[in-house]
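During the reporting period the student researcher (J.K.) took over the structure-prediction task from the postdoctoral fellow and processed the backlog of single-chain submissions. One of the processed entries is reproduced below for the supervisory committee.
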Amino acid sequence: MDKNKLNKELNKVIDYFQSSLSKIQTWKASTGVLEDLEVYVPSWGQMQKIQALWNVSLMDAQTLKIESWDKSVLPHIEKGIYESGLGFTPVNQWEWIMVKIPPMTQERRQEIAKLVKKELEEMKIRARQIRHDFLKDIKTDFDNKEITEDEKKQYEKELDDTIKNYNKKLEEIKEEKEKSILNIN
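J.K. obtained the following structure tokens:
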């Protein structure tokens, strides 16, 4: 069993989980909430990702400032943000766009906490799939007589322990995000 490969695969799951949670809106502004947004630019005739059109920065805890490389696309960016379904109302300031992050209600906080739990379950499923793949490799090595039965049991135990530890890390990340969502301060 290649422990480095296992850790690498599981670290990808954790990195993906942290990245996806960074995009979930909390009560304060975060540049990550617009990261995956694509906007149609008619003069270019195609959809464009955020990085190609603008720079997002924080003005304060509740406000994002969007500065475009090309001022002619500001109306398209404004329209794209408004139609994104994120619940933001962008305000075009002619040189840049301001996006106020609306305060969250307790009900909305609960909904977002449920989204975080759902995302956690998906990550645990990915970890189980990785575990399943490594168990198949261990079984194949055993069947090909590359490892003994004792080694097989040892590798299976190490695999289960590693998966358990990564699941704990995922739980800790989820709990931290839930705390930030449910904290009303």
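The committee noted the following: The longest helix spans residues 106-143.
J.K. will present the remaining backlog at the next meeting.
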